[in-house]
Design brief:
mainly beta, Porin, 2 domains, disordered C terminus
Length: 283
């Protein structure tokens, strides 16, 4: 083979490798499509009491969302999401939750996936000035609803009730074990909440949900998920939890408008307990 042919062949392989690297970089930089609005909730640090089961129904409807199928993931426009969460208190500082995700789209009610979520918290005997807990949520979603079908989320939780003021911060990190290359890197997905008790039974505040992209290379702001939800909490009974609000997306990477509600009921087995669980906070 002549030196000229060898040079042309080498040049071809170099160009091909260059285009492969560019393609990989694009794949790593593109946000991974997913219908993530199944459990829109900022967690408080409290866990469900022992011998207590908490049933919660998470409902939301996307008024204005994505309208195109991306990477095989269905659009969210006019999608109704219904999630059943069952949480069992095991010790005063440990609980385990189980989620069943479903969706209603184009007149069809489909199963989306399931997750399991153990969570521990700092016991009250430690007398910390703030509530602190840590959850790990692992599970599966069908590929038509998420490119990263198997995923793990680690969620630290810090909150505090100070008089009528309540705040909670959830700097969550999640990653997929299947799907696109961008799914398989740790993503930063923080959530936060601040609210004010206008009455003993009524609080109003602002919830925030973010999706910044991979920790090692955050997405441009335009592609990030940035959602704000003014929301009410109704403390009608120690056994019940009610939360509802309207969500507005601030970027192109976010569903632009949705409504959401959470209705929860505690069931105590063999004892009487008035302690609040993980969503609402002890006053």
């Amino acid at each position: 083979m002549s030196a000229q042919k060898i040079e042309r062949l080498a040049s071809f392989h170099i160009r091909s490798a260059g285009w492969m690297l560019v393609g990989m970089a694009v794949l790593l930089a593109v946000p991974c499509p997913a219908q993530e609005n199944y459990e829109i909730q900022v967690y408080g640090s409290q866990t469900v009491a022992p011998k207590t089961t908490m049933l919660e129904l998470h409902s939301n409807f996307t008024i204005e969302g994505s309208k195109q199928t991306e990477e095989g993931v269905l659009p969210t426009h006019h999608a109704l999401h219904e999630t059943l969460e069952i949480t069992q208190g095991i010790t005063p500082w440990f609980e385990t939750g189980f989620y069943i995700f479903t969706t209603v789209q184009q007149g069809s009610w489909d199963w989306v996936g399931d997750h399991i979520r153990p969570r521990v918290r700092a016991p009250e005997q430690w007398h910390w000035p703030v509530g602190v807990s840590l959850s790990a949520e692992f599970g599966y979603q069908r590929p038509i609803y998420a490119t990263g079908t198997w995923s793990l989320e680690v969620r630290p939780i810090v909150d505090q009730q100070k008089g009528r003021l309540y705040w909670s911060v959830n700097p969550a990190f999640d990653k997929g074990y299947t799907g696109l290359p961008s799914d398989r890197r740790w993503q930063f997905s923080p959530a936060a909440k601040i609210s004010w008790d206008f009455r003993k039974q009524v609080a109003f505040g602002l919830e925030y949900y973010g999706g910044f992209g991979p920790v090692a290379g955050l997405f441009p702001f335009h592609d990030q998920s940035q959602q704000f939800i003014p929301a009410f909490d109704l403390d009608v009974s120690p056994r019940w939890e009610i939360n509802f609000g309207v969500g507005v997306g601030a970027t192109a990477g976010t569903d632009h408008l949705l409504v959401k509600a959470i209705i929860g009921r505690r069931f105590n087995w063999g004892h009487s307990s008035t302690a609040h669980g993980k969503y609402y906070r002890t006053r």
